[in-house]
Design goal:
Anaerobic Ribonucleotide-triphosphate Reductase Large Chain, 14% strand, four-stranded antiparallel beta sheet, alpha/beta, 503 residues, 43% helix, ribonucleoside-diphosphate reductase activity, thioredoxin disulfide as acceptor, 3 domains, NrdD, Anaerobic ribonucleoside-triphosphate reductase, six-stranded mixed beta sheet, 14 helices
Amino acid sequence: MASGQYGGQSINGIDRILAPYVRKSFGKYLEAVVEEQRDVYGIEPDMEKAEEIAWKRVKKEIKDGIQTIQYQINTLMTTNGQAPFVTLFMYFRPDYEYAREAAMIDEEILRQRIQGIKNEANVYVTPAFPKLIYVLDEHNARKGSPYYYLTELAAECTAKRMYPDYISAKKMRESYEGNVFSPMGCRSFLSPWKDETGAYKFDGRFNMGVVSLNLPQIGILAGGDEEKFFQIFHKRLELCKKALLLRVKLLKRITSDVSPIHWQYGAISRLKPGETVEKFMYGGYATLSLGYIGMYEATLLTKGVSHTAPEGKAFAHRVMDDFNEHIRKWREETNIGFALYGTPAESLTHRFCQKDRARFGDIKDVTDKGYYTNSYHVDVREPINVFDKFAFESEFEDKSTGGCISYAEIPNMTHNVPAILTMIEYIYDRISYAEFNTKLDYCHECGFDGEIKLNEANEWECPRCHNKNKSKLTVIRRTCGYLGENFWNEGRTKEIKDRVMHI
């Protein structure tokens, strides 16, 4: 699938999907153990002992299976030479028929991620994929809840490997008509949609792509005039709309033959060869994303303050509300599932800024930084604690339901997992989707395992042996939502260097 599409793909409830097969394996092993007791050892079957042995064999099978998934994703490249952008979404309800088996699967996924995967030097390192998302709900979010032990394991995993990221089921239900489901890859969320039976459907749906709006450039052109900002903003929105509709016009001509695994063999549909995919473009089945970048810079240019200041926040919310009013109108006019999306801007953070710097010169705290701030995020340089950051950014989440995520920069907390658990509980109560960034690097020259920093020349340099050869350094950073390990463009590198700690 990854080779036949752009962007990420998710397994929406890997624990729920695999759990019934774990139960089948248990039945198979139990039958085999009983047979061994009777035929090999010549004793009457001891069912209690037989079940104990069967569960041990099941655990070994789960371990082998999860290990296979993890190593295959990290060693089998797609046609563009990258590891598949796969997300494993872990969520089951306590009343689920196979809850015990689902919990066993989640536990093994977390334990194997804590261990990491071996590199060519036979050292366990942090893999970038698959991305892990752990869902917080009443049965696991608080101390004393029945599956809290999994959350404790998730916190330990976060401290050592950055993943998993966290979704609050409670907060997500507030924005998505009571539903809890995986993003498509990193942060792109579908809008709720019902099939002909009235049942919500998320699996097998998709996003048609994104066009992103450069908010700082509008702020520069408006010259501090708020009304002029919105005049230009509205013109740019119409341009974005035309670009997005052009995408639909081109896509709807595509036939199922372009990617049989998606369109003919069931990943999305089971169309006949030669049949067009047009019917999936309308009615909200697929989403079409309007992205945006640089709310902080746009606010600074227009109001003279950060959007964390009261006056700036009011302006930022006005922009978001205006975005959504246009999205609503476009949906009504076209019957297409437009959605507002906080663009990850892996490279766009630099490209937009670079273009504006060439055109407008150095503007303090805007173009002179070399990057623009992602979506509605707090400026990466602004001192703010993790709780205030999550509280502030949570106000924008339900206005960016096509995709968004918040993060906190934290130090090495492998020896302070209880503090991570405190932050996780705060996520459950206050914000729908959040993640933690820490430093997890390795030098292949000297074996240094810790934080590799940027020197004054903006080069990654091992603090022990001063190795600067990128081919012999593994530097893992949160690029936006995914972990990145292939180094970054100049702007993103500067942004990473400027990030302040939030705890």
